[in-house]
Write a structure and sequence with these properties.
With 315 residues, the chain is α/β, with parallel strands linked by helices. It is built from 13 helices and 7 strands. Helix content is 54%, strand content 13%. The structure holds guanosine-5'-triphosphate and magnesium ion.
């Protein structure tokens, strides 16, 4: 039985194995991914992003419990930025989501940013496909921050939730351009803290400045206390409403088509880069190009053109 067959029959260990192979860049993983691909596209994908420590993992844990209560199987992908500033995130996630560790209906996977040459959103898509083929009804992706990478990762999700905390004040102004566009739902978490009302009002005001067309989704702001499980039902309802909107308006179909195109282009980009960079690793080619650039014998434009024409020569 292939790994793919096992995964399709719901074998969690086979799924874990394939995800490891994807991480390690094992060649056979691609063959398995090809086999599971026709069986994907059933899971609903939710992206959760926000600043470090906003309570994303706590929220994911509560949402997971909520979906389990509805008898839905839940996959979680926690992206670990492996940066010196947020080191230890994975450990924290493990502890916070620990209560689901023995639940066969929950699969939690961490993905490290390190080592992915700009291909993190692609490998996230691969892992999501494995979870999808495994039969997960809902897949939640947790990622820190709101930078470009995160926007890309989150663009894998059907519904995106941006988590904020009270007292960000001017920070909201500073990052609004990025976050206002990506959030379908905004959560002001740690609503037990001072200033939650104000943060929520400010967010709503900024969102209202957008011009929405008739029938367009209007992002909602929800106050939540993830730690004490308050506001989670409302959030689950908000997600369900957004999902309904996506399905009814035809946006979901459009989104899935775009996602497919993006996944293909990412793969193509990665494979092309690998082909060419492997080519210049041999025979000291890279070093000689560098020497040529230093001495002024060549320039980066010409160097790229010659490497490409050597490698992609049609013969
Ligand atoms: N006061 C308060 N604290 C909370 C709440 N929700 C979570 N926390 C705490 O906030 C801290 C960070 O929570 P996490 O869930 O790890 O936050 P995160 O956003 O996943 O953090 P990173 O993944 O490291 O970016 C923990 O100590 C939580 O217990 C809340 O509703 N109120
Ligand atoms: Mg976390």
């Amino acid at each position: 039985m292939s790994l793919a067959d096992k995964i399709l029959s719901g074998d969690i260990r086979a799924a874990a194995r394939l995800m490891r192979d994807i991480d390690d860049g094992v060649a056979s993983a691609v063959e398995e991914l090809k086999l599971i691909y026709p069986h994907t596209g059933h899971a609903y994908v939710i992206g959760i992003t926000g600043p470090p420590g906003a309570g994303k993992s706590t929220l994911v844990d509560q949402l997971t419990a909520g979906y389990r209560a509805q008898n839905k199987r839940v996959g979680v992908v926690a992206i670990d930025p492996t940066s010196p500033f947020t080191g230890g995130a994975i450990l924290g996630d493990r502890i916070r989501m620990n209560r689901h560790a023995d639940d066969e209906g929950v699969f939690i996977r961490s993905l490290a940013t390190r080592g992915h040459l700009g291909g993190l959103s692609r490998s996230t898509a691969d892992v999501v496909n494995v979870l999808d083929a495994l039969g997960m009804d809902v897949i939640i992706i947790e990622t820190v921050g709101v930078g470009q990478d995160e926007v890309e990762i989150v663009s894998t999700a059907h519904t995106t939730i941006v988590v904020m905390v009270p007292g960000l004040g001017d920070d909201i102004q500073a990052i609004k351009a990025g976050i206002l566009e990506i959030g379908d739902l905004f959560v002001v978490n740690k609503a037990d803290r001072d200033g939650a009302d104000r943060t929520s009002r400010e967010l709503s005001t900024m969102l209202e400045m957008n011009r929405y067309q008739a029938g367009e989704w209007r992002p909602q702001v929800l106050m939540v206390e993830a730690q004490r499980n308050r506001g989670i039902d409302e959030l689950l309802q908000g997600i369900a409403r957004h999902r309904h909107h996506m399905e009814e308006s035809g946006e979901l179909r459009h989104f899935v088509e775009e996602k497919r195109a993006r996944h293909f282009l990412e793969l193509l980009k990665e494979r092309l880069f690998m082909e060419v960079s492997n080519h210049i690793q041999v025979n000291g080619r890279f070093r000689s190009i560098m020497a040529g650039l230093t001495s002024g014998e060549t320039n980066p434009y010409t160097a790229v053109e010659s490497v490409l024409s050597e490698r992609l020569r049609r013969d």
